[in-house]
Request: fold
Amino acid sequence: MNSLIQENVPMHSYTSFKVGGPARYFAEPSSLLEIREVLQWCAQAKAPIFVVGKGTNLVVADEGYDGLILHLGKRFSGIQIQYNTLICDAGCLLNSAVKSAVDAGLAGIENLGGIPGTLGGGAFINAGAFDQELCQVISKVTTLDAEGKLTERNNAECDFSYRHSGLMNYAEIIVQVELTLRPADPVILREQMNAILLKRRDKQPLDLPNAGSMFKRPPGGFAGVFIEKSGLKGFRVGDAAVSEKHANFVVNLGHATAQQIWELTKQIIAKVQADHGVTLEREVIFLGMGKV
Ligand SMILES: Cc1cc2nc3c(=O)[nH]c(=O)nc-3n(C[C@H](O)[C@H](O)[C@H](O)COP(=O)(O)OP(=O)(O)OC[C@H]3O[C@@H](n4cnc5c(N)ncnc54)[C@H](O)[C@@H]3O)c2cc1C
Reply:
């Protein structure tokens, strides 16, 4: 076995929901060279690859993942500032990019403070909050494909839309993200970022494991409002529950399983459809679970 590859690594340690079975193989490469080595090993072993950032928008099946989970190591967390541009390694925390931008007096992502994932995961899903989305500021995304070739895409080529990107169509690893921002007063930016952090603390169940908003915003309203109107706050399947604090958050009350979270979301979708004629779509990614 290659020294970069570990076996049977429990994924509950790598997801914010704290659920999920073992990854058959797991690697935490800390350079492009090491990623290429892991890719070669996977090609030889015919092992599929799935990239995990901070696992804050992810549920991994209780059975685990029968392939290799690639987790960008700590060395992929660099942030450089050149004029109005932040050049970030994909494994850096989105929150660190926000703080760096605010300190440097660069505007455009201050409302994204408090989103707990990596910038790579954020670009992949086009993370956003409070009227800002990463797609408004991403100027370049660099990826590595299974053959180890680097590709650079500009904003248009990433084909971003609401909580979606064209990057989802390629089985590629995002290794770097460039954000082009606007000069602004750092004092005002910091005040704005701190106000957003307070709102998050006030409205979100940050004391229990979760993966942020469970459902995308449906046409005609907010998922949480429909779920609350359906009387589902506190509704549980096992230890997976609709948060009492914010109805679009599913929380792990202690020993929830991935299957319980899936089943709970299925029942929420069915009830909201029946009560309001609104079709909810999951925002959280379920790895190795059903499709509906
Ligand atoms: C308390 C809380 C609040 C949140 N608030 C928000 C919010 O306001 N707005 C919002 O948009 N999201 C929010 N989220 C969800 C989540 O934090 C973001 O979507 C975040 O950007 C996901 O990043 P991640 O590194 O955790 O991705 P992961 O969960 O690890 O992965 C998500 C997807 O991205 C892919 N991916 C990750 N890294 C890479 C990479 N380097 N290359 C290729 N693919 C990759 C994975 O394969 C997976 O499909 C919240 C989550 C929590 C727990």
In short: The chain has three domains: 5-71, 77-193, 205-287.
